[in-house]
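Exercise 7. Given the encoded structure of a 171-residue chain, write a plausible sequence.
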């Protein structure tokens, strides 16, 4: 009797629609969805997060087009699928209120309100490139006494600026 009862509970727990693999056909980053195909059926509006509620808080992994993903139904509704596992990720986006963090093969964006890390670094480098120093020298019988302006090594800051521009993104 106990085994029959356990088997009955297992049947009750079984999902009518299981997780299944599809190949990513396209990705809509704005909507947080993708289209996937199992070779026979094309599934549209597959959510990249199990919850997409339009709020300004989200974490999305964007699969690479052509990669495989495992999709699962939400509440066993085959018309409401979400990506559960990714084989390859093209990019990610994390938004918490007014803070954004995005990563892709070109670099990353760290943004709070209208300020980005890249813009802050560009402003810092620009300020450093504009630095100058006034050095007072005392003269000898041959040399004169006066002030000399010595500039920083501008090429080093320009090289660093190029590196930051290759590493960080604006959007």
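Solution.
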């Amino acid at each position: 009797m106990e085994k029959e009862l356990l088997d009955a509970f297992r049947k009750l727990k079984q999902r009518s629609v299981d997780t299944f693999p599809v190949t990513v056909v396209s990705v809509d980053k704005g909507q947080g969805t993708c289209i996937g195909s199992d070779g026979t059926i094309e599934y549209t509006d597959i959510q990249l997060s199990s919850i997409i509620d339009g709020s300004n808080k989200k974490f999305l992994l964007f699969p690479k087009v052509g990669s495989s993903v495992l999709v699962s139904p939400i509440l066993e509704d085959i018309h409401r699928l979400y990506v559960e596992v990714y084989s390859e990720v093209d990019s990610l986006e994390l938004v918490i209120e007014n803070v954004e963090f995005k990563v892709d093969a070109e670099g990353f964006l760290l943004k709070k309100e209208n300020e980005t890390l890249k813009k802050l670094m560009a402003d810092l480098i620009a300020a450093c490139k504009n630095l100058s120093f006034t050095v007072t020298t005392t003269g000898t019988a041959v040399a004169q006494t006066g002030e000399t302006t010595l500039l920083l090594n501008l090429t080093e800051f320009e090289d660093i600026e190029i590196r930051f521009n290759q590493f960080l993104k604006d959007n």
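Remark. The chain has two domains: 2-91, 112-167. Students should compare their own answers with the one above.
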